Amino acid sequence: SPKELYLDNAKVYHSDAMRSACYNLGIKLIHRPPRDPAPGGLVERFFGTSQTQFESEVRSGDIITLDAINQAFSAYLAVVYHARIHSETNQSPKQRYDEGLTVIRHVDMDAALAFFMKRIPRTVDRTFADVRIDNRFYRVDPKLRGDKVEVRYDPYGDLKKVLIYSANGEYLGSGNLYLRDQGAETPAASPSKPKHNYLDLITQKHKSILQAQAKGIDYHQIISERPWPFMAFVQKLALLMGHKGSLSAFSSHELESLKKCYNRIPALNESLLTEAFQNASVKTLP
C-alpha cells in the first residue's frame, strides 16, 4: 500500500469508508486544494486518455455488462496504458512507477476490501429468518431470529451474499440471497456475450499475458502501425475548428463519432484531414 493517497474533493473521497480504510492501512489521505485545478492535471490527463482510447470504444460498440466493462478496463490498463512508452520520459507508466518504488508494503486484499463494505443495521425477521436489503432477501442462521444485527456487503458486487455481524462487531455468519416466496436461491443471470471487438481483444490479450490473439481490432497495431494516431487526429481537428485544447473540445458522443470515422479510414493523415476540412461546406460536427 502507498504511504500517501492524493485525491480530489469528490464526495466519495471524503466518505467514512475511505477514511477508515486509509487509517487501518496506514495511508495518509490528502485532498487537493479546492478551486485549484493545477494540482489535478496529472489525473485529468489520465481521464482524457482513457476517454479517448477506452470510453469511445465502449460507446461505439454493443451494450455490455458492468462486470465485462470492469474486466476490459483492467485489461486495457495492463495491456495498453501501462505498456505504452511516454514521449517525454521514454518510459512506460509501469516502468516509471516501478522505478519510484522503495519499499513495497503488502496488504491483505480481503481485509482491505472489508473496509469499503457498506454497513447497515437490520433486525432478522422472526418468521423467515432473513434480512431485507433493497428489496432483496438474505437467509441467515435461524438462531438469529428477532436479533438486531449489522449487515455488511459490497454494494458494487454481485449481491448474492452478505456478512452478518453483531452490534459489537462479532462475526455471526453469512446471509445468502434467495426468493422468499419460493424459498430457493435466486438463479444467476446469464450475462450476454460481449460483442465489442476492441474489448474482446484486449481482454483476451490480458488473460493470455499478451500472447493470444483475438478476432476483431488489433489494438496494438492501431497504436504502433498507424503513422497518425487517433490522439493527433483529434488534436488537429480541434485546432482546425478553432477550439482550445483537444479532448476537452469534444463531448463523449462527438469523440465516439470521431473514433468511428478514424477507424473507417486507415489512410487518414494530417494533410488529408486539412484538405477535407478546407473543402467542407459546413465546418462543424454533425
TrEMBL record:
Integrase catalytic domain residues: 1-101
GO terms of biological process kind: DNA integration
One annotated GO molecular function: nucleic acid binding
Taxonomic superkingdom: Bacteria
InterPro entries: Integrase_cat-core, RNaseH-like_sf, RNaseH_sf, Transposase-like_Mu_C
PANTHER family: TRANSPOSASE, TRANSPOSASE RV3428C-RELATED
The protein's name in its UniProt record: Integrase catalytic domain-containing protein
Annotated organism of origin: Escherichia coli
